[in-house]
Design goal:
- This protein is an all-alpha fold.
- The chain has one domain.
- It is 62% helix and 1% strand.
- It contains 16 helices and 2 strands.
- Strands 1-2 form a two-stranded parallel sheet.
- The N and C termini lie far apart (41 Å).
- 45% of the residues are buried.
């Protein structure tokens, strides 16, 4: 049963779940357009500030591509399965070394078994709350590229089958964001490299390394971890849909650098998983109107979500 049906009527859910081809196309164009704008900004005014801004914005939009692939996995990005599959695979997933079909299988299992021993994401959320020192170590590994390099190395090993033991290869990978790994890296790698090469052709030769690989190895890994912690870290281990997942309120800066495309409304997404991301704020407001605000796990900010996950602990 869809958890949201315990709180929302079919008549209330139906308009929220309506897909829009125009909105789906706009979201994909917006994501890639934001990436292009960040690179152009540096090209026009090359300095340390615009360089850093480009890395942060592009890293957050790489997460944006993952979010839009997630939308396509739920067939919520476009009205037709054909367009969801095409956009989710080639315009969103492959450019960030992800694979739609593998992600869809993984992620639907997460929805079916949220916060139970069958939840494939439980290994991520069960580690919280942790200590501030542990979070700092994780964030440092992300921001210095250690997490990204470790994951990419593990993907290469899995793809070329250099390791005889598949489980050992998985163990060699970072314990984070397993869902966004393409099973066969070499189907996605040409697309990833193609984006970097295009950036180099449009600017200096090193632009692809600076504005695609570097954000992927650093800021993308960081915001991916923050997103995961905020969604399920230190939440109730139960099947209560109002407490086993967290919505995090996000202002303009958080939406720009950490939480694009309404990804912060995660409780609402779990309520009715096929509601498009751009409708989740409406669902949030509707749940509040029904007087459920006091029962919902909602963080006022990502700072509060991280504090609940252990940032305030010694």
């Amino acid at each position: 049963m869809t958890p949201g049906k315990a709180y929302l009527s079919t008549e209330e859910i139906r308009p929220l779940a309506e897909r829009s081809n125009a909105m789906g196309a706009w979201l994909v164009l917006h994501c890639w357009g934001t990436i292009a704008a960040a690179v152009v900004l540096f090209g026009l005014w090359p300095n340390v500030l615009t360089f850093g801004l480009a890395v942060l914005v592009i890293g957050s939009r790489q997460l944006g591509l993952a979010i839009l692939m997630h939308e396509a996995a739920h067939n919520a990005l476009f009205k037709s399965r054909k367009w969801n599959d095409f956009a989710g695979e080639w315009l969103c997933g492959r450019p960030i070394l992800a694979e739609l079909s593998a992600y869809r299988h993984y992620h639907l299992s997460h929805h079916r078994f949220t916060q139970t021993d069958k939840d494939p994401d439980l290994v991520l959320s069960s580690k919280f709350p942790t200590s501030r020192a542990s979070l700092k170590r994780k964030f440092l590994r992300d921001l210095t590229g250690q997490t990204g390099i470790k994951q990419l190395t593990a993907q290469i090993l899995m793809s070329v089958r250099l390791a005889g033991d598949h489980e050992a290869v998985e163990a060699a990978a970072s314990d984070f964001a397993q869902a966004f790994k393409a099973r066969d890296l070499f189907k996605s790698l040409p697309v990833f490299i193609g984006v970097a090469v295009l950036m180099g052709l449009l600017g200096d030769w090193w632009w692809g390394l600076a504005f695609w690989l570097l954000p992927y190895l650093t800021w993308f890994q960081f915001v991916l971890r923050v997103r995961n912690i905020a969604e399920h870290g230190a939440t109730e281990v139960s099947q209560n849909p109002l407490q086993n997942v967290r919505t995090t309120l996000a202002g303009p800066l958080a939406r720009l650098f950490v939480a694009p495309y309404w990804v912060n409304f995660h409780l609402e997404h779990h309520m009715v998983m096929h509601v498009p991301c751009w409708q989740l704020k409406k669902m949030h407001d509707l749940l509040l109107q029904k007087g459920l605000g006091g029962q919902m796990r909602v963080a006022r900010s990502y700072g509060q979500a991280l504090a609940e996950a252990g940032w305030r602990r010694a």
